[in-house]
Amino acid sequence: MACTCFGSVHPGIAMIFVQIVFGGINIFYKLVINDGMSIRVAVAYRLLFGAAFLCPIALIVERNKRPKLTWVVFFQIFFLALFGGSIYHNLYLASLNLTSMTFAAALYNLSPAFTYIVALLFRMETLSLNNARGIANVAGTAICIGGAMLLTFYQGIEINIWHTNINLLKYHQNHHQNTVGSTKQQMFGLAIALIACVFYAFWVIIQAKINERYPCFYSSTALMSLMGSIQAIIYALCFERKWSDWKLESNIRLISVIYLGFLASGLNITLMAWCIAKRGPLYVATFNPLMLLVVAVAGSLVFQEKLHLGSILGGVLIITGLYTVLWGKSKNANKNQPAVLPNNSDQESPEVAVTPQSEVNKDSAV
């Protein structure tokens, strides 16, 4: 289905669109938080709308391909939804609320470094400094972490590229100071983001295991979104029990959850699956830093977010580390050819490379 729908589209154009949509996630999250919507409710609606988009696609595309859903696969998908769905999104959104959009988007690119560390613990990767691939993985991970530290602890001079009078958030002064002006909150936001990266890394590991037992991408993704939405709803109901907390009474809330569910968690996943089938997971992962650029430009244009030298230098280091890790992974991919899913679409297994958007579900991140 994806191949017939997107056959005339260049994968590069598709991935640019995907990253622009992912950048919009941060914008709409900021808008609904400013509108007073609960973080937990926003995550629940996103996963619920995403499941509503993906379930019909899975039923149609893979109706004759799905193997039997065993209890082992069921529990694996349950934890997949827990780590990469309900927990990850709640943590990412909490970090976004405490910091800025650019800060959160930059830390999103730490995911491959943490995935590499977790893969080492699970012996899915080997630590070797005797070849260029091993050195690239270790050096890239260290550069990513160093960039995150620089982004957090060094501000530097303010960079004034342009100035607009547009501010969609319309913060009260006290709220603005508490949100972006406190170093303590920046550090707390960093800690939450790092924990989110750890959960994302576990998500990648579990995803690789599921691909071996249940090689139906759309079905597993739809089940993950459905289970994640149930988990997120139960979690949100523990704190938000009033009907008024769940009402999509404003246009911005309704538009945001439709965007987050249908576009970010629905259409984007389908496009990324198609791009992986066409060009492979490493090709998809190389477009990740584009989201950081989109978020930085949007934040400074319409949210009056200030760009500082430390933010730019930290972002450059994180992106450099990301591409260093991806280069090491490409060497490994050339050495060990990826397995192909047993279907007619020639879609490559997302477990091939432990990269930020072998995830294709994410977004994750986002």
From TrEMBL:
Q: Which organism is it from?
A: Populus euphratica (Euphrates poplar)
Q: Which GO terms describe its molecular function?
A: transmembrane transporter activity
**Membrane spanning residue stretches:** 12-31, 43-62, 69-89, 101-122, 134-154, 187-205, 217-237, 257-275, 282-303, 309-328
- Start and end residues of each EamA domain: 14-151, 188-326
Protein family per UniProt: Belongs to the drug/metabolite transporter (DMT) superfamily. Plant drug/metabolite exporter (P-DME) (TC 2.A.7.4) family.
Task: Output the Gene Ontology cellular-component terms.
Answer: membrane
Q: What is the residue range of the signal peptide feature?
A: none
Bilayer disposition of the protein: Multi-pass membrane protein
Q: Name one Pfam family in it.
A: EamA
Stretches the record annotates as Disordered: 337-366
Compartments, record wording: Membrane
Would you tell me the protein name for this molecule?
WAT1-related protein
Biased-composition ranges, Polar residues, are 337-347
Taxonomically, which superkingdom? Eukaryota
Instruction: Write out the entry's keywords from A to Z.
Output: Membrane, Transmembrane, Transmembrane helix
